Structure prediction request, 1134 residues.
Amino acid sequence: MNLAGTEAREEFAAAWRYLSNPAFHDELIAANGNVRPQWHPLVDSLLEIGPEGLARRWQEGRRLVHENGITYNVYGDPQSTDRPWPLDPIPLVIGAGEWRTIEAAMRQRATLLNAILTDLYGPQHLLREGLLPPELVFRHTGFLRPCAGLSVPKGINLHIYAADLARSPDGQWWVIADRTQAPSGAGYALENRLVASRVLPDVFARAHVRGMASFFQTYRDTLRGIVPEHRENPRIVLLTPGPYNETYFEHAFLARYLGYTLVEGGDLTVRENRVYLKTLGGLLPVDLIVRRQDDSFCDPLELRGDSMLGVPGLVEAVRAGHVAVANALGTGLIESAAPAAFLPILCRHILGEDLKIPTIATWWCGQPRPFEFVASHLDNVVIKPTFPGRNDHPIFGARLSVKERAQLLERMRASPADFVAQEQVSLSTVPVWDDGRLEPRHFVLRIYVVAAGDSYAVMPGGLTRVTTSLDSLVVSMQRGGGSKDTWVIGDGPTPEFSLLQAPAVPLEVSRATFDLPSRVADNLFWLGRNVERIEVAVRVTRAILSRLYSESDPASAAGRDAGVRILAALGYLSTDLPAAADRTARLQAELLGMIYDSATPTSLGSNLHQVRHLAWLLRDRISADAWRILNHFDQQFSNPAPPEPLRVSGALNLLDNAIMTLSAFSGLVMESMTRGHGWRFLDIGRRLERADQMVELIRHGLGLVPTDESGRLEALLEIADSFLTYRSRYLTSMQPDLVLDLLLLDEANPRSAAFQLARLREHIEHMPESRSSIHRPAEWRLAVELLTEVQLAEVAELARLDPSGRLSNLDKLLMRLAGELRRLSEAITRSYFSHALASRQLHAR
Amino acid sequence: MALRVNHTTTYTYSEPVSICHTEVCLKPRTSAAQTLLEHELVIVPAPEVSIARQDYFGNTVTYFSSQEPHLKLTITAHSVVEVHTSDPLQPRLTPKWEQVSEEVRHYDRAETFDALQFVFESPRVRTAREFADYARPSFPAGRPLLEGALDLCGRIYKEFKYDQRATTVSTPVDEVLRIRHGVCQDFAHLMIACLRSIGLPARYVSGYLRSGRNSVGSEASHAWASVFCSGFGWLDLDPTNNLMPAANHVTAAWGRDYSDVSPVKGVALGGGEQAIKVGVDVAPVPVQY
Prediction:
């Protein structure tokens, strides 16, 4: 198909109804109405697929985004720790020739910024000679004086750097922002590629789109090259501020992709001037910290004292040369807009050449002439703060009222140095898929650069972010914008890299077992407990619901009431319902509320949400498949309740599905985890909870005074998933002693309390504390006691009624077991999870 | 004359501290005004790591970490400093304050470039119109810098009340100006804020004061302000005692404000309740050659 032809052009326009706005440069359609050449393969393919075809394919894409759990956190929104990543199916396409220009410019800019940082943290010639106003450095909270003169391996400050690019109506690219601290988004760019290339696989291959895997390989090589010690086998960690950071998903994703351990500040400690990772197996030396945390928060001793995220003593460890940090500490200094005003001069001075892609016109108001210019051209500029930490929102001069403008000018006159102005450009547009048609939207392109030897390498691609509407001036994921894959067209076919597989450099598999931070073990333990807890609740609820209308059948009613008592004891039902006339109706309402009303904290949906949250904290530890199962499950419970006649049967269906899904999740997690400490903690949590729940089931299900036994016992066996075993073993009616034996004492029944206790003992036998000391720790003694207790119990004794007709022997045992299980949980917490010990500041005048 | 300084800081905890990382800035500087003759830093329990270095401002700071669980940490700095006396300056001979401000703004010499960094706001010292307004009566147009600075120093001394209960180690300087009470650290910060707000470079000096009949601030470590004056270098002023430090002051360190030179700072893991005790003793000793 020849797209330059009028016919094809009209066909495309007719089918896709894409109207670019002539006021802006459009990436797809040139001024003469023709499709730009680099877009031809994509447009050809879109013509073949048609809007309906794309809609179908995009459903698949959205499913991938959801299932891969690609998320982005929005600050200040407590519900949003997992907002789905907004991705658009149409990529931005950049031609090979244009790309060469961008690539050269990005290399130049990274080299320049790196050199500026080296000078500012060293001799400060640039300040002394008046090439950069000293105020921009000396007043900046990101100028970290303890880092001046700090050794920077190979002279690299910026290991990764990113620039935001925009295109003005005349087609010229401009740099509108620099990201030097810990640039985010490279991982999202990679995820976008994974999704977009699956949605448009044919055209992706045909268009010679350049791959991105080699970029990350270079990043890894560069990082490995600056490791100061243990060069043959370094331990590299990726430092995240934690799950509440906006790009935590990306931190977890990149850590897994690059093969680094994801850590928070609290997972690290400095001993004898070296950084160590606190793991269950003890302290392990760390050689390189790839930080995704602002530098000033990295060490509460020498940098920001109020940082709760840092590692006390880290700067001294860097100073001693035992550990390297990438990007180097202090690189946040030149991230603000003001230094950009001086880059043209600095570039000529340092590199002896002009900027290959200029910075958008920038004026620092701390100098009289720029200030006067800005004051008289407020309509054409965006005002930003010079120094970080104050009001960081850009102010668009043209949108101010007369009063606001006067107030702004007054503030600017009072402290002009606090303000920077940038020319407001009309960003170019790119087609965005919106409800069945293509619409133009403004975009900003973030390009990533990594150090490579003496120079820099540019990611062939990037993160394209689009505005929410054509009127919007701000491109920000924080404010609801979208993103796109970015296709850089190669000169010919590109070698295939499979990004779905691990990077080419082999991972140090043998270490994974020992690198388990205590914090992660803690989360795994609770994940195990919570999954099990939900499963029991689901099983009990199902048993009740299936016996709901059973007033005429006493056995069934007894089973139902046993279930109600259990559920009430576990805290799911508000009360043990009174024997009122509308009892069944009230019970039904409560149960359905528990299933469908996810806003109630005791509901299954809300419990499930907690499990999902825990799993999400463990993103780098849980397989993608297990995560998908959980996501799918969570969604099932978010659906609204079906209409009335179908409510109970719908709920039963949902519960059946839930049990299958939970089993699949547990199975997959268990099967895909190496048998290391992580697996053990997950299983300890699970076994502990199951033993605990079984004790509760028997206590409340059987009751102290046995009546209507067969109905109760049947329900109990059903809830404990042991009905078939019982039937096949005894071929007889229900007998309490036999049921007790099966559920409590039989070590061969994987549902029995005894089975759980035997597993627990085995696990604890293998824990680091148990192995390493002659004095057995408390959790070991408790595990042995618990198992011995059930092994020594006689079922005939337990099933014997005391003179008052009660099962008091059984009750005593159950009470003892419950108490010891609680103590066991506490002992494990004390031995392994006490990393949360608070550190505090010492200060004296 | 020489002064002997013993500065002891003791932390006691209700529960053991398993590890602490500490940085101290306790070693007196050698400068035109004083010579450090002896210095010893004693830490109990003895730290596993102890490293001294020069910080950004040329002060000596010592980092140490103690990994042995402890209920008490004692840091003692013993120093002997010879304090040089010089002829008092004639305030009226110093340059006009506007001229100094102008020269620093142009920073065309190493001296003025070095002073420039002390003209901007810093973590504990804001610059603002309210401070400029307070400083203004002391700095009419054309007044020699030291005359103005001494006048400002005297006004702070007279108009502010020394009161150890009014402020804490973290009271912001705005509040000090409002409540007109404070201790040496507050008065030093206030004076620096006033000087910087009218464009004069000023820095924070931490040190010691010999105990005497009328001096205030000798029972703990002391602090005062210093203003840059081209041709004369840095001129110290003690607004807590309304004087220019001479034979009775020992300089430990200087920086933009307290946060650059806090004598002891650290992060401890564990510890429960903590109590801090600081003791400073400054006395003359005969110099032996």
